[in-house]
């Protein structure tokens, strides 16, 4: 790990003293809990983006299994570059992919076209923020994968859930996942630092220090990525930041119920002693 990384916390999250250099830094190639949703800032950030999503890609098996039981069309909310949407289309499902990042949707379209017209013809993309979502179609399955629900401000989440529920066909399902944190763990360790190398195959050596800071009064978190990209002639340093919200399971369950959805299934996967990933499958009440 490059020695030149000394994370500087954003002022809103900087109430706690900074750890000494190297203290409490976890060097890992395994799943990085809570670090999965950040949009690429430019073409060079695509490698980091894909590395963060990579450990979570196994969820496609569960989501595809669900789609086979519900049928399509499928609504992929926060689709990114199509890690779910394109494979779904390859399996014959019509998919509407929604994301606020134009470059990600361009990558999705390009990927679908490279596979062939049969796949490209099953994918429709729409650029919009989830907080402003207004749907026209009807769907058998809606997805909020990759912990995307944590990227929606809690005050706007009930409206999003109502909008999605109102466009699900009878018997349709909404599937979503999120990272569940134990409150004692957040209190004991509100700041966490991760270091990892980004797999790249373009001759660039990239290391990242990711600083995750929880703000309990606002139930939010900020993750700042300090990346150093070293080529043959120079080193580029980039800082990327993403803000998310800590999901409170009871509050989310109440919002789903209010939107006319009931939780049909719940699957938990333990990440560590204080964190787990939760997958919910919700059905329309009608």
UniProtKB/TrEMBL annotation:
The keyword Transferase applies. Residues 1-33 are annotated as: Disordered. Keywords: Methyltransferase, Transferase. Residues 74-172 form the Methyltransferase domain. One of its GO terms (molecular function) is methyltransferase activity. Its EC number is 2.1.1.-. It holds the Pfam family Methyltransf_25. CDD domains: AdoMet_MTases. The keyword Iron does not apply. GO terms for biological process: methylation. It is an enzyme of class 2 (transferase). This is SAM-dependent methyltransferase. It comes from Streptomyces flavochromogenes.
